[in-house]
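Handout, section B. The chain below has 471 residues.
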Amino acid sequence: MSTFTRYIGILFIIYLSYFLLLVVYQVILGVIGFFENRRRNKQDEAEDYSRFSVSAFSLPVSFIVPARNEQEWISESIKAILSQDYPEFEVIVVNDNSTDQTMNILHELLDLQELTNPYKDRFDAGKIIGMHRSRKYPKVTVLTKISGKKKAGALNAGLNFAKYKYVCIMDADTIIEPNALLRIMSHVQKEPDNIIGIGSSFGLVNGFKVKDGQIVDKSYSYKPLLAYQNIEYIRSFIGNRIAWSRFNSSPTIAGGFGIWRRDILLELGGYSTDFTCEDIELTFRMQDFIIKNKKDNYKILMMPYFIGWTEGPSNIRSLILQRSRWQRVTNETVSYYRHMFMNPQYKMFAFAIMPYFLLYEVLGVFFEISSISLVLFGWWAGWLDVRMFLALFCFMVLTQTLVSLISIGAFFREEKLFKLKDIVLFVFLSFFETFWYRWIISLAKLWGTFGYLRGQKHFDQYERSKVKTDS
């Protein structure tokens, strides 16, 4: 055996070991997520929401909704918030110098009047050039700021203005269910001194019909590009994040919907404007804060309920733009918080979360592309038997499918959101994800990694679709 052939054999063993380790890790997470999902849903069934929804002791919440060129969704998103079955909350919309009709729509919807309130910038927000309050809904305030400092700056502007202890961060293209805040804050209500952050699951609103902020027809899109994104969301929330939450090691509270304690945000200086994206970095920083300050009683949780719906990219170009940006911020965050990697001080986060993010989220794209290239080259060069090639390829397909099916099974067992034909479609598509969709995501990750290495920091906003109304 030549030295070159021996090296190829070693590489083959490394790649195979990598995929086996990843599969074992994801299967274990999927099983943990299955039982954690079941436990949380049993708690949800036993909750007396009718009493909680009228209680004077319910913790008030400040919604913060950053909006830049969100004319297609802003009206329905705000209506959904105002329809919340919750005793007390305020809404702060931050118009980040939109150049479309966003501000005009807000004026028409809310009947705004100008404010002259004093404003103190405790966070890195950027310059505020306008403040308005709704005559129609006095609990709604609209801030307008000059562009710059990315989405984090808009969020910080809202934090400066928020008056309640808990803030709910929401994207302007998210439609939340009427009981969303009630379901999530019921957990906070039980441990207000311990829970400093909490989020939950959401799916894609593409194809739905919306009227006055309410979903009136949940007709899921059967377009494979959108169906695969729904599968990804289910796999991510149930298979990963719910399992991590079981051990109080959540690495991400998604920016689409997440609740934080404002006093902790104030102590940390708010959202960082140095990163491409804001949600994952803040969650890592919160976990870092818990350990460094020996706040073992603090919790950052994820719930398995679908509490809202957000628009997903409807074409390949938009999907690549979105996922490449996600990859950039993942690389930025993991690199910045590398001191947490295998550091015993950080416990589960150091030994289960950081290795996963480094080996899969950051380096995984290189393992995937180089391993399939090696296998294809080995087959072409005659080093790898055709039967061995097919066996390896089937192994990759079936293990990926197994991970998806565990999460899909856990989700459909508890959440009665999909019809039988939707479930059949998701199961069917799971067997073919490796053939094309996975490689689109890999291409986006590769593009995002190159962007990170080039020092790119811009926020790529993909083209929005017009909301479907019931008219």
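Note. The chain has a mean pLDDT of 86. Compare this with the example in section A.
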